[in-house]
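anyone seen this seq b4? input:
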Amino acid sequence: MKTAEVIIYTDGSSRGNPGPGGWGAIVATKERVVELGDGARLTTNNKMELTAAIESLRFVRDLGIVGTIDVRADSRYVINGITKWVFVWQKNGWRNSQKEEVANRELWEALALVVADVQMSGAKILWNYTPGHAGIPGNERADEIATLYADEKNIKLFDDTRAHYGLDLVTSPPVDENKKIKKTPAEKTRQKAKAYSYLSLVSGKLMRHTTWAECEQRVKGVKDTKFKKAVSADDERKIIKAWGIV
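predicted toks r here
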């Protein structure tokens, strides 16, 4: 067993959601950087995000590393799920707040298991949200790997010393979740208001969702989309009209 600091970047992608997909991950120890990834013919973005987290942590577990593992993911679905929701789901027999079977249960169980394995070895996992498409080298590369696998294109994964990698994997601008952005009183009220529904527009097709998780699953990783929270039936109609949907 050896002690080391580890940085992991993960990302997932799908074309169509569901559709062809891929996942990518970068695992960096003090001495070595290894890129991981794979694809699937029919999957969703959330499945690929979860798979990236599972496979990268399995890789670290098998290295026998003890230390701090900094997982930098751009999926709040993964981060909130493994740090908050999974404990409630397990307690409730893998049923969500609507008493329905938790989506992607088999992947959540696999992630919970590998997290437990890693922590039992003495390692500490830090889950840090890292915004996608924000110019962060590690996230951009993980996204590139995931996208290339989703598109079934050839890709050469790196496995060599950290000195030869060429990307800055340490610097990641801190995300201030409470960053003060000037908003109008109406915007502040809207932000705090309880959601009536969530709307998404993908390839001209409108869908209504009861939870943000459902909406996010449809739009994340898909280009040319629109999505918004509606706070009332009237607000919902206004959003749809503004999007040009009759």
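Confidence is low (pLDDT under 50) at residues 176-181. The chain has two domains: 2-164, 185-242. kinda curious what u guys think
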